[in-house]
Structures
1.
Amino acid sequence: MSFVLRLAGAAIVTAAAGLTFTFTHPPVTTIQRGYRGLGLQVNYLPSYVQKLREINKVPDPEPPIDPAGSPSSDTYQNVKVLGKVDSLEFLRVMASIKDWVAPVQGCTYCHHPDNPAWDVKYTKIVARRMLQMVEHINTDWAVHVGKVGVTCYTCHRGHPVPSRIWFNAPPPAPAQLGGMAEANQGKNIPNVTAGYSSLPYDPLSLYLEKGYNIRVQAAVALPGTDSNSLKHAEWTYALMMYIAQSLGVNCDYCHNTRAFRDWAQSSPQRVRAWYGIRMVRDLNNNFLDKLHDVFPAYRLGPMGDSPKIGCATCHKGVYKPLYGISMLGTYPELAANGLVNTTADIGHVMPVPKE
Ligand code: HEC
Ligand code: HEC
Ligand code: HEC
Ligand code: HEC
């Protein structure tokens, strides 16, 4: 075979492989979300939807039990946040927390085997704060989570460290060449956060921890007064890529793409998302960041910061976590019932008491 033919053969094979792995195959299910003919639709791949269904199955609750009739604060020694909960129901909650957060590790993930009242593991201190956080979400963020609400399972799904948490990213390395290429603002480094686009890789620190305005236009018209506007446009688009893939939807789910900015042409889901952004900021600033000194160093990020919550930490790729099925019906203490003491001091890690 001539060299040219071989070369052509190799080129065809490479191109075919590239085509096979680059494009997705039909069938694609489309759901219309606006007026006909405008392409306002959300696309789903049935095979991928099947995978998401697996991830978002609701586990069976622990069977109900007859109450003991006495509150936990009377029965146990060191109950700070669940004191009002019935003392037998308390154990049912413990069994559930074990299933939701540490099914492999068991009760001793948070407790010393000799005495569950001791605060000797950081995980128990974090778990107390998490109980307060769940109560806070279900009570004060009903504008986002509705009556569906959340439990530990919404984020943890059977793992001590939830999937799809995030950290502050290290700043981009200065470009080798210097000059105009000096500051690349974190662009052209494909990563999962910005949906493998060439957009800046860390919009989350700015918008889901700090409270920067999510805008593509400068707030003032005068030149030289808002040097951030171009950067913010890019960060905004990067954040939107993140939001869309966290919920497994495209931009049309919230926007009419001919006028992203205009609320009058947006869907009600955009309003939910607006509250969601504020909720996530609140959770990161007032819960996760404040637990910084409780987390051991190996749980902190490359910049030494706390692990943080994003949209995907709850949503896991679908428009409503667990497809909108509520687990609160069988766990009234985690719903907005005032049964968790949200202002109690969560204590701190102490050495194992000596006999
Ligand atoms: C993810 C962490 C975690 C896991 C796993 C866990 N617990 Fe707990 N447990 C806690 C926290 C937090 C408290 C304190 C609650 C409070 O202060 O209101 C607690 C308190 C207790 C207490 C009260 C002790 C006292 O006298 O003060 C008992 C009993 C208990 N747990 C039993 C269990 C059992 C049994 C299991 C396994 C089925 C278990 N726990 C699994 C976090 C956990
Ligand atoms: C909105 C999401 C969310 C919910 C709901 C949630 N957690 Fe967490 N949890 C997190 C994040 C984020 C972390 C930090 C991960 C890490 O420790 O590296 C975390 C960490 C923890 C840890 C420490 C694990 C470790 O190994 O470091 C424990 C224990 C825990 N959560 C218990 C609970 C319990 C119990 C509940 C329910 C009362 C709960 N969480 C609800 C997001 C959540
Ligand atoms: C789940 C809902 C949701 C999805 C999906 C979504 N957005 Fe957004 N978008 C919002 C919300 C909410 C805001 C306003 C945020 C704020 O003001 O804090 C916004 C703001 C914007 C803005 C800024 C508008 C302005 O006022 O300057 C642009 C541009 C934008 N989105 C583009 C996109 C693109 C592109 C996509 C798809 C990759 C997308 N959005 C997907 C909810 C969404
Ligand atoms: C603490 C968990 C949690 C986090 C974090 C979270 N959400 Fe949600 N979200 C929910 C729950 C629960 C629902 C379902 C509420 C209902 O059905 O009433 C929901 C519903 C929504 C909906 C409405 C979907 C529909 O079709 O009606 C949108 C849009 C949404 N979330 C966007 C976001 C965005 C954007 C973020 C990140 C900025 C975010 N969420 C973060 C728990 C969360």
2.
Amino acid sequence: MRLLIIAGGFAALLVAGAVFALNLPLPPPQAIATYQGDEKRGAYLARLSGCVACHSKKAGEPWAGGNGLKSKFGTFYAPNITSDPKHGIGAWTFADFVRAVRQGVSPSGQPYYPAFPYEFYASLTDRDLADLWAAMRAIPPSAEPSRAHDVGVPFSIRDGLRVWRPFFERANLTASFEEKGSNWNVGQYLVMGPAHCAACHMPRNIAGGLKEGDGLTGDPQMLDGGKSPSLTAEALRARGWTKENLIAALRTGVLPNGDAFGGSMAEVVQESTAFLLTSHLEDIAAYLLDLDE
Ligand code: HEC
Ligand code: HEC
């Protein structure tokens, strides 16, 4: 009898917990200004933001998803985001797209996993999103079905993210500092925002949340099992980085000593920073090395 009462109490707690979680609100849709999207600029933003890298499988059709992102919570598969109405996002509205990318909420009102780095896209402007959307609409449809994530209970319960969010979701870290000059500020916007360098170079707590207070001090235990070095100005200078060699390395993937970037950084360069405008690489270097310009 006592066991039954305990079991009953436990079940009631679980149900109460689930009801509580289901009622936790997600951010409401934001008002969006209308812009005529620029497809070319959008394609550039997609490179800068790493969308192409994550949403394309090595030998697969670009944007058709299937790329596996290993983490200690399981493997997440980036979905097909081509213009296919059934398997991609062809049936979405622009507002659906904005809410997904900037707020991490699906058209059906479900939270997305932070494996999709929407937290870093919160700083994309309405204009950026209009351009990205124009680029996305131009992607030919692919009928490749998206692959289900391979994550175990409790992480497979999407509604659990409603509890995770208020505690661990990061704040927008791109507030500008006037005294720092425009290169530095654009650099900060790129590194802490869409280029999401901080996603890998900022340490995380056991729940996978970013330890914002630590800054870009590197992550000795990245979610994918790798390690990333510190990118603070002090650490970079101590390791011999200058504006010139940093720009060259992000452009070519070759380090000053002739080695190549290893781990996931190799892909970041190949799929993203190699394509950036020199002015944007200069901004990134100005911010990371804390240069006065
Ligand atoms: C680090 C890998 C990664 C990057 C970079 C990334 N995504 Fe994703 N994206 C994902 C994953 C994983 C999901 C699935 C999330 C989930 O199921 O909760 C996703 C989901 C989405 C969805 C929702 C699709 C659907 O069917 O519901 C859209 C839209 C999307 N991403 C667009 C983008 C855009 C645009 C960019 C660049 C600005 C981008 N993604 C960058 C990994 C990534
Ligand atoms: C997907 C995770 C990931 C992202 C995103 C990422 N990095 Fe890295 N980065 C790494 C890893 C892992 C290493 C270590 C590479 C190695 O072992 O060779 C690294 C190394 C570096 C180094 C070399 C530091 C040194 O002294 O050896 C620099 C510089 C760097 N990253 C800059 C950046 C910048 C700038 C961005 C954003 C544009 C960025 N990273 C985005 C994972 C990442």
